[in-house]
Amino acid sequence: MQNPPFCPNACCRNHLHPEVPDWWRKDGFHATKTFGSVQRFQCLRCGTSFSSQTFSVHYFAKCIVNLRALERRLSSSMSIRALSRDFKRSCGTILNRIDRLARQGIALHAHLRPTRNQNESTCYDDLVSFDRSQYFPNNIGISITATSHYALGLSHATMRRSGRMSKAQKARRARIDQKVEFEARAVERSMFSHLSMLQTESSPYGSKRTVLVTDKKLEYERALKIHPLYRGRDAEHQLTHVRVSSKAPRTVSNPLFASNYFDREVRKDLAQHRRETACFARNPANGMSRMAVYLVYHNYEKRYFIKRKEDRKETAAEMAGINPMLIKHLRRSMFSRRAILSRMELVDIDKAIWEKQVYEPNEGGLHWSKLPRYACA
Prior knowledge:
This protein is α+β, with helices and mostly antiparallel strands. 34% of the residues lie in helices and 18% in strands. The strands form three sheets. It has a five-stranded mixed sheet, sandwiched between helices. The chain has a three-stranded antiparallel sheet with strand order 1-2-3, with no helix packed on it.
């Protein structure tokens, strides 16, 4: 890198839009085992010293992992241990690179999502799985466009185990209930964040009529009726809530087909959501990072509706009306240039995954997993 694009110091005027072309000077080199000799720079305004590696997706890495291959294999049902064997790296290194991929994908998705065709209906449903053990089931909220199958966002809610249990299982659940505190109205909070994202990113040039398709879960209706998207309806802005029975056949004619299809693909393509296996999320925040990587792969890399004719290779994002050339450019940048949080305006639903912010009952409240300092810059 000959010319740094901006100052990495978030408090500097040259961070967002450098005012003058010669705002920096070269500040020597430093030697690394992984990248060789690395050029250093210094901002002439704030004095911050940085290097060309500051802007690389491999910043602070001690070894190189092919991120494109990692994304493809993670989204092809390989577990963390299998990825570790395949790349000949430790599980900790693989988890670190998945976190990087998730943040890079969130940055790309947040940039492209508002440019989609906003005249489509939106489907919303929960993917039911669990973290750590079946005594901590989770509902992963997924919003997706009805026709193009373009996944919009993800949210996480931890629930208290319910359903049929043996006496021993009920006794164990009672012991767990004495030690932990589950979040109240978690499913409503989860859906609320999706509604806020839809409201924030609605285009003034798009349709004034929003169609939301869900099943008949009561929590969805309660969350919708207290949200400004529903309460702020007027003659120009309308919202239609279509409720579909979860017992209806999961065919193409089902209004919730997009959610059902994405649910099936996740079960098939992500190891942590395969049923009755030893693969499950030990850490909820890490599990959401893997879901974020898969969402980006589904939207921007995977062929839309796999049963289509072989000569049709559009992705879900292209079917949603997003510019293919812009997708190609940003996908190339996603695997090379580091996304920096202070230079973006993320909605809450994306920021929660970026900051690994998940409600964990064992922690007794809202919990932020440990993040490297460069991820919060």
